[in-house]
């Protein structure tokens, strides 16, 4: 489990095509400290498994299904990525509960700068809109953010200077893809209420 608090802005240093998968080599001095084979690291919000670790770099295999359902397939050598290690038991939950299981992708639609922050508008797949509410939580490229405005096909978030400086959202432009993970609590509530409604009609 992750929290959506990005630990560092890493970089893709190599991409190997494996046919039905890709192997990424990534540089991240913070997240590789003490890393071992089999550890999990979130890359732009996608939970990946460490295959090899050497120095400040690690490799991870990305299956075709993940490449298709996330924005990782658009990454290339030199791409910057958000990196986060799983939350340690007993640690503070600074963001919200993030599984590292991407629900869909959106696109940056617009950026509106202000003196001390920036409003970013992101497209929202129709099947995810019901899980996104004003002042609720959403994960964008692995970043835990608070929804400012929730529409039928978009939402907005307000980014502080720290987020702009230390994550991919400081660099992405309109048209760029982003990974989205909605609040898992909303999905469980929907399922429980649906089961209760079905039980009442039997």
From TrEMBL:
<feature type="domain" description="Lumazine-binding">
    <location>
        <begin position="1"/>
        <end position="96"/>
    </location>
</feature>
<dbReference type="InterPro" id="IPR017938">
    <property type="entry name" value="Riboflavin_synthase-like_b-brl"/>
</dbReference>
<dbReference type="Pfam" id="PF00677">
    <property type="entry name" value="Lum_binding"/>
</dbReference>
<feature type="domain" description="Lumazine-binding">
    <location>
        <begin position="97"/>
        <end position="193"/>
    </location>
</feature>
<comment type="pathway">
    <text>Cofactor biosynthesis; riboflavin biosynthesis; riboflavin from 2-hydroxy-3-oxobutyl phosphate and 5-amino-6-(D-ribitylamino)uracil: step 2/2.</text>
</comment>
<dbReference type="GO" id="GO:0004746">
    <property type="term" value="F:riboflavin synthase activity"/>
</dbReference>
<keyword id="KW-0677">Repeat</keyword>
<dbReference type="InterPro" id="IPR023366">
    <property type="entry name" value="ATP_synth_asu-like_sf"/>
</dbReference>
<dbReference type="InterPro" id="IPR001783">
    <property type="entry name" value="Lumazine-bd"/>
</dbReference>
<keyword id="KW-0808">Transferase</keyword>
<keyword id="KW-0686">Riboflavin biosynthesis</keyword>
<feature type="repeat" description="Lumazine-binding">
    <location>
        <begin position="97"/>
        <end position="193"/>
    </location>
</feature>
<comment type="function">
    <text>Catalyzes the dismutation of two molecules of 6,7-dimethyl-8-ribityllumazine, resulting in the formation of riboflavin and 5-amino-6-(D-ribitylamino)uracil.</text>
</comment>
<dbReference type="InterPro" id="IPR026017">
    <property type="entry name" value="Lumazine-bd_dom"/>
</dbReference>
<protein>
    <recommendedName>
        <fullName>Riboflavin synthase</fullName>
        <ecNumber>2.5.1.9</ecNumber>
    </recommendedName>
</protein>
<feature type="repeat" description="Lumazine-binding">
    <location>
        <begin position="1"/>
        <end position="96"/>
    </location>
</feature>
């Amino acid at each position: 489990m992750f929290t959506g608090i990005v630990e560092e802005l890493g970089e893709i240093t190599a991409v190997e095509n494996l046919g039905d998968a890709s192997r990424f080599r990534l540089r991240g001095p913070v997240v590789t400290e003490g890393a071992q084979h089999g550890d999990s690291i979130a890359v732009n919000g996608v939970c990946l498994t460490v295959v090899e670790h050497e120095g400040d770099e690690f490799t991870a295999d990305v299956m075709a299904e993940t490449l298709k359902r996330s924005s990782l397939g658009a990454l290339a050598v030199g791409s910057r990525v958000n990196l986060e290690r799983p939350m340690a038991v007993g640690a503070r939950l600074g963001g919200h509960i993030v599984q590292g299981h991407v629900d869909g992708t959106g696109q940056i639609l617009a950026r509106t700068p202000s003196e001390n922050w920036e409003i970013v508008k992101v497209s929202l797949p129709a099947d995810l809109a019901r899980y996104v509410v004003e002042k609720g939580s959403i994960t964008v490229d692995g970043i835990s953010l608070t929804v400012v405005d929730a529409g039928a096909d978009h939402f907005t978030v307000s980014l502080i200077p720290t987020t702009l400086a230390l994550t991919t959202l400081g660099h992405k432009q309109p048209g760029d893809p982003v990974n989205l993970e909605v609040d898992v609590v909303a999905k469980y509530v929907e399922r429980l209420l649906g089961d209760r409604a079905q039980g009442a009609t039997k």
